[in-house]
Amino acid sequence: MGNKITKKHILHCSMFLLGCFGILFCYLVYIQVFQAEELNVNPLNRRGASLDITRGAILDCNGEQLAFSNGPGERRYPFGAVLAPVTGYVGEALGSSGLENVLGDELSGQSRMLRNLGPAGQLLQSDRGSDVRLTVDAGVQQAAYDALGDRKGAVVVLDAATGGIIAMVSRPAVDPEQVEAQWTELSQREDSPLLNRAANGLYPPGSTIKVLIADAALDEKVTDLNEVFDCSGRLEIGDTYIGESHGAVHGRVNLKEALTYSCNYTFGTLAMRMHGSGLEDAFKRFGFADTFAGEVQESRCHLPRFSELGDGDTAQTGIGQGELLVTPLRMAMLAGAYANGGKMMVPYLVDEVVSPQGIVIRKASPAVWRDATTGQRAAIIDGFMENVVQNGTGTGAAVAGVRVTGKTGTAENPSGAEHGWFIGTAELPGRVIAFAIIVENGGSGSVALPVARQIISTLNNR
Questions:
Q1: What does the pLDDT look like over 294-338, one tens digit per residue?
Q2: Cβ contacts of residue 336 below 8 Å, gap of 6+?
Q3: Which of 138, 205, 227, 229 is deepest in the core (most CB within 10 A)?
Q4: How far apart are the first and last CA of the chain?
Q5: Rounded to 5 degrees, what angle do the CA atoms 216, 221, 224 make?
Q6: 131-167 burial by CB neighbour count: b if 16+ within 10 A, else e?
Q7: What is the pTM of this model?
Q8: Euclidean distance between CA atoms 365 and 346, whole angstroms
Q9: How far apart (Å, rounded) are the C-alpha atoms in residues 231 and 228?
């Protein structure tokens, strides 16, 4: 008797569920066949609405258009390849990159704020996306791009006090409007025009890293400002040695003079005195082991395993060679810290996001990323870097009436001539800028000095 009742209940449940599925199937057919057109044009249909939205503009700090749309799917980039590392590109088949990707929601009107409102937010959505105003100055970007000429390399210019990116140049680059049509060719080119070298290129820093080594040596108390080093041209390490760049001999120098003339003997020696833990702590203090959040998508720097390095590899790290690889963006941040009392700022590109109605949806708020060093040591290293430009290897970057600091670098690489580096800062009316310049296969840091001088002069005259 009990089994018959159970079977009866199961049958009733099955028939009920079958009936529900039948009703659901009929409703789906009704939607697909009879309501399709109505739902397609309904303002609550996000998929359909997004196809009719005109993408917002990307503007520089002065309101100049870097990217804009005449209508849905019609994206234009007035500066072409010059601003490509900043704007990125957007295409129907390839998707997007750069700010076109990172700020896709804002530019297409699909902001998180409106999404959080649900259906009401969709009804409030405009037929045009929001505009984005950047910290980038198109005139400075153009000057840096022109100064690099036809050479491969990168330039980063920051506001040292805020972290706002004033210029981010990479050469070679390609016009964003041509990426989709030429994708196959561009993606196979050996010179990697689609790579943003400023934020994603990884290079040995060469002698530019000596500013950090000097800071670390003072922090670890393995030297002081009065010690004298015999910069005789070579540092003996067991059966091998490290020579000076281009065979230079500087004689007896203190720490300031060693940085001024870029003495490998001094900085190789200091690195070996600190060995594993001291060096590792210094690189961590300046954030080289970490990445940061924000609109700038930087490649992670590559650090050696300090505890496993022998004396030779440790000394190589002290002069910016070996396994150490960094981005130009990170080296600009390093330079900026010494002009900013030891504080490293989070780099950012977006100053504000403005709705089609002219309402500021989001405003940038500069933030300290690292208290990397003390104000006292920052002032010491900053003074050393000023002497590099006044009396040392960086005199070619001097600009009349402007306090310029810097450090040159020559970085060996296994695939060609040495890379030329220059990092530093400049005190301009109302602000201090920090910069990093690399010229791939340039031969020495001196090739980067005219680039720095042109950038500083352009900003000083604006």
A1: 899 999 999 999 999 999 999 999 999 999 999 999 999 999 999
A2: 158, 160, 163, 344, 345, 425, 432, 434
A3: 205
A4: 96
A5: 95
A6: bbbbbbbbbbbbbbbebbeebbbbbbbbbbbbbbbbb
A7: 0.86
A8: 10
A9: 9
